[in-house]
Amino acid sequence: MNSKKTNSNPKIIAVIPVMNEKEYIQSLLNSIKSQTYNNFYIIACVNQPESWWQNDEKKEICQNNIKTLDLLKRYNHFSIEVIDRCSKGLGFIKNEKGVGHARNLLFDRALDIANDSDIIMSLDADITFKPSYFQSVADIFLSNPDSVAHSNPYYHKLTGGEQTDRAILRYEIYMRLYALNLWRIKSPYAFTPLGSVISVRAKSLRSIGKLTPKSAGEDFYLLQKLRKHGRITQYNELFVYPAARTSNRVPFGTGPAITEFLNKNYSRYPIYPTEPFDLIHETYKLLPILFSKDISTPMDDFFYKTFNKKNIFSELRSNFKEKDKFIRACHTKIDGLRIFQYVKYYQEKFNNNNEENILKHLNIFFGDNEINSELKNKLKSLNIEKISLPLLNELRDLLFIKELEYQKNDFHEPQLPF
Hints:
Helix content is 48%, strand content 10%. The protein contains 16 helices and 9 strands.
């Protein structure tokens, strides 16, 4: 569609991948129906692998999808364009990769009808938000014309179930501590990738080109690619509230994480030590010197293992003759994926005691008067999986508020080096 100049009332095209969501979809529809901002268009893709129709263990999900498909087609409070990839003969084939493929189909369809000034908003079917959420996102883009995307703050509502709530809090603490460390070291990739909170300018989505479908983690790769393209805002006074639920639809993410925690498997989501982030920060500080000459960095062993090169900077130095462009190229190469790989690579070299690592983080991010002394004492003497649910929730809230502070400060400052 032809582009138009940015206007004061951009259309929001909200895209929703849907699988096994009959229990949750009505709450999302209610949130959309209540929006004060009325210039929006909704596209949903109800999807599943075609092979599930021949799998007795998956037929319940197939039937759930058909009921959801019928509900969406009959919904009359606002129009919904429904893409059917769940009915027999229409499901995804082997090489089409689940929710990532569904989200890509939705993005492609949104771009078919979007003007450059429109906003494409990625939602999940199990979230809720307040009536002015759409308006708040539109206002953020209008007041930040240099931004390419917005990743909104999130907050999981508790269910009242002890074990499920403990699992989602533990997962949220894992995510927030990782993000806070990226903020602390001023990484360009300080964001939490949740598909349910990402909005992007249609023009920017066109500019980065077609995304490669992933079986999971497509939200991370989307944000990483967008961040290399430009600025991502993250602060908003209104939050998105994802459901705390188990799920095995994707190999990793919120649903599988809750399932892992419920099964007492904590190894995939450790509390990372602070040291790897410090070493990344030390490497960042060396980039201006590396523009002029070769020097060793704390990450050299990892670079050699990852890129099979003893020196990744000489080639960048040859290709980028200005310091700012060289530093940007370094951050493009040492991107969010490489940072995550490095933290995992070096994790076993440092202290892997979750409680000690949390205490180190708390000492870095908070003063003594900001932390409940009972919480600190419990972490010194108990396994994090055994402290009381109220204290675990208090820890989550501390990290949530601190992350909002970083997001708000960044909201009013230009992001570098991109």
